[in-house]
Amino acid sequence: MLTQLQILLFCTAITPIFGIFGGKTAELGQFPHVASLRLNNFHFCSGSIISEKFILTSAYCKSRGSIELITAVVGTIHQVNGGDHYNIVKYLNHENWTQASLLNDIAIVEVKTPIRFNKFVQPIRLPTKLFDDKGIATVSGFGTVSYPNVPSKYLMWVDQRILGLERCRIANAPVIVYDSQICSHPDAGQGICEGDIGGALVMDGTLIGIASKSTYYCGSGLHDFYTNVYFYLDWVTNNSN
Ligand SMILES: *[C@@H]1O[C@H](CO)[C@@H](O)[C@H](O)[C@H]1NC(C)=O
């Protein structure tokens, strides 16, 4: 019996594909920190390489399966082919991760053997200060490119305007927006979607955010939410040694 994912992958083979939602196709080596987290070799979430042994991702993704069935694939822009595959030995969610509010949506994945770095596989720098919240940042992922649920054949990327937290709070009330979140304001038809979750939001070569959720429906033009990595530097350090 075909799983739902296999059917979807079959569909992508015959359907023209666009975006991370309104994005562009990445070139090999453009985002060398990107990891595809796969369950039985089917992509379910994205992550970012931060060292030879550790990948940063979203806590929301952990529910997708037992770690023996999960691999991290790096060094490819294809969702299905190529890349280096690593087994994982740990998938650690933040202890105060809360699904309902998405507070503390951060997790660390440990690979079994050290990731080999090259031109197409590199760790990304963690932030050393709070970023400029009026800037533009880039998100990339293998996530859904049209709704519902058409996974992308290629790694895609799009630029996002960062929205200051105060404006984000006003726009999203009564939903609580935490200091430890980053809010972006994509143009209509752009942004993150299922499968992009856990992926990197990058500004000036630094991992500032982890893709956490898109509002309402993907590409709605409403806000996307990211976990602000700067708030979790101690947690990351304590759990990646
Ligand atoms: C989780 O929450 C508890 C209770 O508020 C707190 O003591 C603890 O430090 C938190 N853990 C982390 C890793 O922030």
Automatic annotation (TrEMBL):
The keyword Zinc does not apply. Residues 1-19 form the signal peptide. Pfam families: Trypsin (PF00089). InterPro entries: Peptidase_S1, Peptidase_S1_PA, Peptidase_S1_PA_chymotrypsin, Peptidase_S1A, Trypsin_dom. Keywords: Disulfide bond, Hydrolase, Protease, Serine protease, Signal. Residues 20-241 form the Peptidase S1 domain. Belongs to the peptidase S1 family. This is Chymotrypsin-1-like. The gene is LOC108559548.
